[in-house]
Design brief:
The protein is of the alpha/beta class. The chain has 18 helices and eight strands. The protein has an eight-stranded mixed β-sheet with strand order 3-4-2-5-1-6-7-8, sandwiched between helices. The longest helix is centred in the middle third of the chain and has 40 residues. It is elongated and about 105 Å long. It starts with 26 loop residues before the first helix and ends with a helix.
Length: 557
């Protein structure tokens, strides 16, 4: 048997000596194997290589988080509206060099590169803070996982994934049931995952959605274990059939190949009183060993300690089954990376070489860009049409003109004439005769239309923005063409600096054009069409105003 002398556990005095798992034969060996895999989990995840883990699923308030707490010793959020709303990937790591209290890391990054050590008791607060920050609004249930690593000097080594409970409560999210089902299935369908189906003792197992989903994705049941929670509630019900359901003894009972395991949970009252894990395990022993309702339930089918042992054994078996595939994927990924390394161009070691290469890239890029600006660029590829600068700029300018003409109001429409009549009556009447309207009125209308309503400024802003985006697109293409093959970092730098320069020039152009547009409304023009339209507008207004005066004269008499 593996006891305190095992590498898994420290032989330090007073370190986890009361942990029942220390006495489980062979458990340390299983835990050590899982621990080795956990040490490379973040690396494999970064390479998109799936690693076996334990996914804990259940309907909302089924007791999932409580089961995880009892196994891991980590407290999870329990208050209203702070239950599991994001996947929590919990890695339990054993390091005999650590002190008695251990430490934890909490991060949104699986490699924990940005994480700082914290106390294990602080994990609950960090989960709550990240949940409130990231899971809100339309993302009340988020698929982005929170990564948690707990390192202690003794205990089980497992990877546990707590998922949001399947729920129909749509108060916070209209499609919450579909979202939670989809999230659960994303993890269940991975062959590497051990599925822990958590169901309350008093529920109807046959209608439990998580069991139906587990059968869908694990039809042979080789990786699904049922966990029956809140067994102490069922024990005190007179007509309870909890033993029959747990033993799958009747033809109508739900059957899982790996069977069911019975546990009890911390009640909220017990938590408020500070009930420890040891006290809960003592309560489990008393219930399952002495209560008549559970007479006949095998000892390996109840209790958190034995549940942890079963999970570790199942996960270890999944590792053995999946390891050949993992090794093959690692070999394929390494082969692909080696090929990429071989294909990389020679590195520029000396500073003179780097300068020569940099100057050569800039010369080529500048010459090519200038050809496109001068309309000297031609390509046989249809997709290269957007890379010709001069024709595309001409198209943008034509679109600018056409759209501006379309936006020009109909100056002689009844609505405009009525507007002019109203403005003359309110602001100009008494200074001029009705059929000799001064230029101030017309200048005011032009200023309102083109300046105050920002017609010219908005049109010019769109024109300069479209041209700037075109130039950025061409710059990106040229930088990738001349620099990426040998020096992708240089290409990114050229693109970044070039886009910054284009953005600055665009802002200057917009300011200049806005000033021109402002000046244009108070400046005389030699454009013949403008004079004709202005004269037509004045004549139309004068005619309309004169007719109004004639209609009013008999009444004045």
């Amino acid at each position: 048997p593996y006891t305190v002398s095992s590498p898994l556990y420290s032989s330090m005095e007073g370190t986890g000596k009361d942990d029942p798992l220390r006495q489980v034969e062979g458990f340390a060996k299983l835990s050590a194997k899982i621990g080795q895999l956990e040490s490379v989990r973040s690396i494999c995840q970064s390479m998109e290589i799936p690693i076996p883990g334990v996914v804990v699923v259940g309907e909302q308030s089924a007791g999932k988080s409580s089961v995880l707490e009892n196994i891991s010793g980590i407290k999870f959020p329990r208050a209203q509206n702070t239950c599991t709303r994001m996947p929590c990937v919990v890695q339990l790591i054993t390091d005999h060099r650590e002190g008695e209290d251990g430490y934890a890391l909490v991060s949104m990054n699986p490699d924990f590169a940005d994480a700082q050590r914290c106390k294990v008791d602080e994990v609950q607060t960090k989960i709550t803070d990240l949940t409130e920050k990231l899971a809100r609004g339309n993302s009340y249930i988020s698929k982005t996982p929170i990564n948690i690593r707990v390192v202690r000097n003794a205990g089980p080594q497992l990877s546990l994934i707590d998922l949001p409970g399947v729920t129909h409560n749509a108060d916070k999210m209209s499609n919450i049931h579909d979202v939670t089902i989809s999230l659960v299935e994303d993890y269940m369908k991975q062959d590497e995952m051990v599925i822990l189906c958590v169901v309350p003792a008093m529920s109807d197992f046959g209608n439990a959605e998580v069991i139906k989903l587990a059968r869908k994705h694990d039809p042979d049941g080789v990786r699904t274990l049922g966990v029956i929670t809140k067994c102490d509630d069922a024990a005190n019900v007179e007509a309870s059939d909890i033993l029959e359901k747990a033993m799958m003894s009747r033809p109508t009972d739900v059957r899982l190949s790996l069977g069911f395991h019975c546990v009890i949970n911390h009640s909220q009252i017990a938590l408020d009183k500070g009930q420890s894990r040891e006290e809960l395990r003592a309560k489990e022993n008393e219930l399952f060993e002495e209560h008549k309702r559970f007479k006949g339930l095998p000892s390996d089918r109840w209790g958190t300690a034995r549940l942890t042992e079963n999970i570790a054994a199942i996960q270890s078996e999944r590792i053995d089954t999946c390891l050949p595939n993992i090794q093959e994927e690692v070999r394929e990924k390494l082969g692909a990376m080696k090929k990429q390394l071989i294909d990389f161009p020679p590195q520029l070691e000396s500073e003179p070489e780097q300068h020569r290469f940099f100057n050569a890239v800039l010369r080529k890029l500048q010459a090519d860009f200038e050809r496109r600006v001068r309309a000297e660029y031609i390509s046989s590829q249809v997709c290269d049409k957007r890379l010709a600068v001069a024709p595309r700029v001409a198209e943008h300018v034509k679109t600018f003109r056409d759209e501006l003409l379309k936006s020009n109001p109909e100056w002689l429409k009844k609505e405009m004439i009525d507007d002019v009549r109203s403005k003359v009556q309110d602001y100009a009447h008494g200074y001029t005769v009705c059929n000799l309207i001064g230029p101030a009125v017309f200048n005011g209308f032009i200023h309102r239309t083109f300046v105050e309503e920002c017609m010219l400024v908005d049109a010019v802003s769109k024109l300069t923005t479209d041209i700037a985006e075109l130039l950025k697109h061409v710059l990106c293409h040229l930088a990738n063409t001349y620099a990426t093959a040998r020096h992708p970092v240089l290409a990114n730098q050229i693109i970044e600096l070039g886009e910054e320069a284009i953005q600055k020039k665009m802002c200057i152009s917009q300011q200049y054009c806005a000033a021109v547009a402002e000046a244009q409304v108070v400046t005389s023009t030699t454009n013949g069409e403008y004079e004709v339209r202005l004269s037509t507008f004045r004549q139309g207004i004068a005619l309309a105003m004169g007719q109004t005066a004639k209609q009013q004269r008999p009444q004045d008499l």
